[in-house]
Structure formats: structure tokens, C-alpha cells
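note to self: the first set is below, dont mix up w the second
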Amino acid sequence: MAELLKRHPKAHKRRRRLGTGPASGRGGTCGRGNKGAGQRSGKEHGPKFEGGQMPLMRRIPKRGMQKGKKINRMHQAKGSRRRRYQVINFVRLASWDPAEPVTPESLAKHGCIRHSDRPVKLLARGELKQPLVIKVHAASAKAQKIVEKAGGKLEVNP
């Protein structure tokens, strides 16, 4: 059966031989024209090129998210002598084990904050019903009163 199969005569199209003299019709510039990007190897401009006119992508204003250098602004001051804190509230500490002290490391371990190496501030949202030992970088005055009222201990290390 295989011996009956024949190759199609036009299956393989011969490539044009370029640069074979002026009489061939494909000599000289080899069908590429004179000078410019079209004649160079690598050829042609990209799909966005508009002949030197300001391209559409640059004429239209940019919108939405832009990929760029991400800057860690956690420790940068917004005003004079201000720090950016990770905030923790009493709402997060409602189910905390009283035997375990509340530190930035333990808060990060339990997923309450993202980074244990950045400053943490305790604010007074929610209620504190059990005495806890809390070690943070800053705390509001109201939060300090609530911790003392619950019988806990608050250590502030700026």
C-alpha cells in the first residue's frame, strides 16, 4: 500500500534565488527596495510604529495600575518624627491565651500582623476581658487604661 503513495509535485515550493544579477529580475536590491528599515536584516518597525508620528499608545493617557518599583513605606516618616505602625486592636486579642504574652513575634505567628520586625501599635477597639501581658512599640491612652482595668500588663518599647 505504501508503494502506491506518491509525493505531490507541488508540495515543495522552491525558494526564490535572490541577487543573481540584473537580468534575473531579483538582482540588485533583491526585491527589498532602496535603503531604510525594509532593506536591513531584522527588517521593519514594530506594529506600533506610525512613521515617526506620535504613536497611539503614547498619545492616550495612561490609566489604572502601573507596574513599577515598589517602595517599603512602613518606616518612612509622613510628617516630622512620625512612624507608620501596624495596628492591633483588642478585637484580635479576644481569643488570645492569657498564658502566652502578646509580642510582635507571637502576633505575626498567629497571623494578626504581617511583619514581626515592624513597629506595632495597640488601639482600643473592642473589649479586653482577660488579663494579658502585652509588649508593643506604642499604645493609645485608652488602650492602656483598658489593659490596666482588665488586670493585665502593658510594656511599651518605642
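second set (the one i keep forgetting abt)
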Amino acid sequence: MQKIFKSMVTDGIIAVNKPAGRTSAQVLRNLQVTFGKSEFFADHLEAQKAYAGHQDRRQSTTRRSRKNKKGDTQVKLGHGGTLDPMATGVLIVGVGKGTKRLSSYLDCTKEYEAVAIFGISTDSYDKEGKITARKPYGHITKEAVEGVLDKFRGDIYQRPPMFSALNLNGKRLYEYAREGIPIPVEIKKRPCTISSLEITKFEAGDSGHEWAYPTREASEVEKAAAKAYQELGMGADKEEDLKSGIDLGPNAVSDEEFEASEKRKATAEAVKTARLAKRTKKYYDQKDGIETPTDEKKEAESEGESEKEPTPPPPQPIYHEEGKPSVVHLKMTVSRGTYVRSIAHDIGEALGSAATLVALTRSRQGEYELGKNVIAWEDFKPGNDAWVEQVKESLAKSQEDADQF
């Protein structure tokens, strides 16, 4: 039995070039299917099944039956840092016992190549979102962009995008925007380090580039929420807001600690937020001809609202400018916790305009770099076994590196 469970060549770390249009979790599921059909992982899977059987015999019948419902044994996989669906590039994958080493890749530096288009903001800060604002862009030149980049180099503070993984009072930030509910407390900016930030290409609007705006427009409620979020805590000196003068306290640590801190501070605002949400809902229910429940009518009357018509957010004027907007290509090296989407968005703000990410590639993470030791996604297509030798080589190399520590 000891021979079965010892570390094998099929455990370790690999890196794949994630394609656009897939989540990181979908990539792992695709790899599990491919690996599960391969002779290369046959012994690995047999060992996993033997170990699972050994564990089952030590568990109660109830727990065993629940576990067995999960299906056949698959190669255990995990990733060392997610990529957005629209993004491509280096995705670190832990295989088998290699998943235990993934945490070390969360703290390493990463390099990104990003493309941002000027003139619009979206609720997600990238092309997958809805347009929340349109601003002038005719004044933007390569020299103008160069002039603001130094504000973003070094140790800076970022406010997470509204469409991020952060939770507040049990809601993700973007759910507040969708429901038209004001965020109950200020989401303070968080520290990160931009080791390098350079322009690799600038495409003026008259250069004939083919980049385009997303087509979905946000509702007035969503636009108002995005504007309010953008203005949270913004002082007169935006450079100071980026570089210093912000005491983050517990917000400078993990998302879990950040969430707990915000929950404590939000208690006093809970009743006020709930009432405002109810008023917003009432407006749209009345607009759609939906009858207000009797209990809500009574509560509204007790608050003196029975004769008041809810006021929707005022429509924001849609800015229009002739000619195509300019586009900037950026290359950057960043620390853990950096939102590249926020960098693009904030550069647009610094230029008196707006900007949205339209392409993103993670070109390096730790020692894994595109064009060197990252496996092309095309090599994993059905019927193509080109990945086998590459995976074998990567796992062996990662095992050697692990043995040195």
C-alpha cells in the first residue's frame, strides 16, 4: 500500500495558456476530462481510487454513499490565481499533490499585457460589462498617457472594481449596482505594487484600428450606482489619493478580514439602506404596474410616504464625439492583489476621460512565461497528444525544484 501512495511523476505544477471565453474553473474541468482519458495518468488514477477505497473503509456508510455520488475519480487539479473569462495567458495548474504548492504562486509577481480603449467606462471595467459613462477622448495622445503613468508606478492604492470578488454584508459589490442600492460604507482603496508600467503601442483614432466599444448600455440605476461608487472618498488631489494618505487598517489584508471589518462598520447603516432599497423597488413596481403588497403600503404610510411618488435617478446625458477613440497597449509587472482593470479605468480618469479594458494577457507568473514553459491550449485538443511530453517534462521539473527546498 505504501508504494501506491508515494509521490509520482504525475504530481506537480504545470502552466497552460488559458484561452479567452473560458473561466479558470472551466479550463480545469476540460483538463480533467483530457487527463482522465490518457494512459499517462492511468496509474495516477488507479492510485487515487485505491486511496479513496481505503478512506471509504474508514468512514461511516452514510458519508461513504454521499462521496460515491460525486462520480468517478478524476485527476485532482487546482489553479494558482484565477483569470477573468476574457483574459488569456499563463494559468498555473497544480496536479495531484502539486495543489498543495499553489499558494506560493499567489504571492509572486505577474506580468500582464493589456489593451484599453478611451472614452467609456463599464460597470466591470472591461468589455464584458455595460457602459456606465461616456466622456471626451479627442484630447488623448500618447504623450498625454505617458504623462500620467508615473502616478501608477510603485506602491499605490486601488479601489477594487465594483465587479470584483469582494463581498459586503453578504452581497457582492456588483449586486448593489444591479439592485440600485447605495453601498452602505466606503470601500477604501487597498495597497498594491506596480513594479513597471510601459506603453508598448498607441493607436490613434484615425489609425484604422479595429477595437470597438461594448454594445450593452447600463440602466440609469446602474449608471447612478457606478458614479456614486467612483466618487467614494475621492479627494481634490487624485494623485495623493493614489499614492498616500490613506489609512487602510484591516482593509490592507485578506478579503475575508476586509469583509469582516466592513460588516462591523455597516451595522449602523443597515436600516437606512433597507428603506432606500424598498423605495427604489416600489418605484419600478409602480412603473411596471405591479401592486404593492398591503404590508408594504401600511409601512409606507407610517413613514409618511403614501402620497409621495418615488423619484427615479435622473437620466445622465450620453456624450457623443465624432471619430474613433484612441487605444493604448500597456505592459506591466504587478504584485498580488492588483486589479489590472482598475489600472486601465483609473488612467482614463487621470486623463479627464474614461477607459475600459478590451484585452488582457497574463504573460508571466513566477517562473512560468509564455513562449518558454507554458503549454499551448491547442495541444490539449481531442486526438492531439502533443501535451503528454510537455506535461511530463513540466511535472518532472517542478518536482526537482520542490526537492531543492
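remember for set 2: Confidence is low (pLDDT under 50) at residues 1-7, 234-240, 245-268, 291-310.
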